[in-house]
Amino acid sequence: xxxxxxxxxxxxxxxxxxxxxxxxxxxxxxxxxxxxxxxxxxxxxxxxxxxxxxxxxxxxxxxxxxxxxxxxxxxxxxxxxxxxxxxxxxxxxxxxxxxxxxxxxxxxxxxxxxxxxxxxxxxxxxxxxxxxxxxxxxxxxxxxxxxxxxxxxxxxxxxxxxxxxxxxxxxxxxxxxxxxxxxxxxxxxxxxxxxxxxxxxxxxxxxxxxxxxxxxxxxxxxxxxxxxxxxxxxxxxxxxxxxxxxxxxxxxxxxxxxxxxxxxxxxxxxxxxxxxxxxxxxxxxxxxxxxxxxxxxxxxxxxxxxxxxxxxxxxxxxxxxxxxxxxxxxxxxxxxxxxxxxxxxxxxxxxxxxxxxxxxxxxxxxxxxxxxxxxxxxxxxxxxxxxxxxxxxxxxxxxxxxxxxxxxxxxxxxxxxxxxxxxxx
Length: 425
Description:
By secondary structure, the protein is α+β, with helices and mostly antiparallel strands. It is 39% helix and 17% strand. Strands 4, 6, 7, 9, 10 and 11 form a six-stranded mixed β-sheet that branches. It has a five-stranded mixed β-sheet with strand order 3-2-1-5-8. It has a two-stranded antiparallel sheet with strand order 12-13.
């Protein structure tokens, strides 16, 4: 009781907080160890698939567990103090110390050291992510536009998917044709804005995981048939993470990590599409899925641009009032120079040019696919055939023919051997 008759309760003067801060170094060791995310993925992170993914996860979990520790500490102490130092009697006033130098030093130095460690580890990781290794890296040029990705490789070929060679650094040189996009591969922990009018770069080195690698089958045009097959590979998602318009959520594609032999096979395939797709219309369907599906439907449904269903041969009224028939010249001009002639009611839509991505095979493919959607008869194969057709014909050859060919070879070999024996005798 004090002189006024009020009961006083002694206060700990920060004893609990000081004890907690004293135990912090041991706790930080445990938190740092817990920060090393699992390679197969964790609750908050997907699998690790690049050389710097583990460092990113370590820093994430380091900061995460520090936040968990101090949040728990503050909430527990707040509840404890609210209960212990509650007012027990009416008119009761708390008495105790109003200042603790050691406590103030502790809660100033410890947070400062932690925040500086966040900066040091984060800055070091950023330098690693922004500085390609001294060894020469492969280079892939990336073009983003509403709402698709295009990747151009050193052999000049352009494709929808990003093909990478395992355990080999690669640098992406990126630009946009319209608005700001952002390339993100969650498994690589790499993300970079793609800006119109300038080039931005990002690099990573995909790691090979023999246990998770398996047969890769890709359906590029979404028709339910397999267009590409690789015996061994790893597949990851690539997304746009910068809102870029109506179909931003559909701006998705795949990253395929392959061993050297399968990577060379992929490069040869995209360099020669006529060896992969059995007809121009089939190739056109794949191009529609890659470049055009986000704006043009093929089932008559409304979209950002005119539907392709029954469009071929139809007369369209342009914004200028001119009436034009949809034919080869109009389609080719609209792909290369989309703003030259705009269909009425679509004046506000700004289609990007595909002049740099399309060659003659691409124009023929799109034209034949549009004709096919309008019920016209189209070519069943490319002029001269394709490797795919040759392989199918080889598989369809009757066994008897193969047996006869083998027998003919064996007979020829026997004849040569007999002639040699006769000359020796």
